[in-house]
């Protein structure tokens, strides 16, 4: 399988919007009883091809979300978006979750389920067909979706790699 061409991006100069994908209450059983804390899975993106995910854990929900946002800002990747969709079909797997994303014509919208939808909308993809296969664990689905998006190559890179005209890439 192809390696992800992950391009790291600095969060300081971006206008990022965050989406909370999942919040879980977790319990640690001690001699004195149960101690509850929260785990928050957060996706951030600028809606223009940059997306990242983060996990925050804390005793309070808001503090966990804040930590998740800070973690997500450290894990930003650049996604090639061409006319509101991705340039080509891509499949990626993370743990037991497998995702399939396919470009769609203008006006289709984001056809994707919960965790995948949050990632795709944060990245700025407006038209795409997506399917989650295997495990539906939100953590793994988000990571598989970001992996799939980072594996997508932009048309210019493909044309340069093949030494062909950019128009020939689309007309095949």
Task: Give a brief rundown of this model.
The chain is α+β, with helices and mostly antiparallel strands and 172 residues long. It has 5 helices and 8 strands; from the N terminus they run E-E-E-H-E-E-E-E-H-E-H-H-H. It has a 4-stranded antiparallel β-sheet. A 4-stranded mixed β-sheet has the order 5-6-8-7.
List the SSEs and their pairings.
Elements: E1 17-30, E2 33-45, E3 50-58, H1 61-74, E4 76-78, E5 90-94, E6 97-103, E7 110-111, H2 114-123, E8 128-134, H3 138-151, H4 155-162, H5 166-171
Parallel strand pairs: 7-8
Antiparallel strand pairs: 1-2, 2-3, 3-4, 5-6, 6-8
Question: How would you characterize this protein structure?
Answer:
By secondary structure, this protein is an alpha+beta fold. Helices cover 30% and strands 35% of the residues. The protein contains 5 helices and 8 strands. The chain has helices at 61-74, 114-123, 138-151, 155-162, 166-171, and strands at 17-30, 33-45, 50-58, 76-78, 90-94, 97-103, 110-111, 128-134. Strands 1-2-3-4 form a 4-stranded antiparallel beta sheet. Strands 5-6-8-7 form a 4-stranded mixed beta sheet. Helix 2 runs parallel beside helix 3 (138-151). The longest helix has 14 residues, at 61-74. The radius of gyration is 18 Å and the shape is elongated. The mean pLDDT is 90.
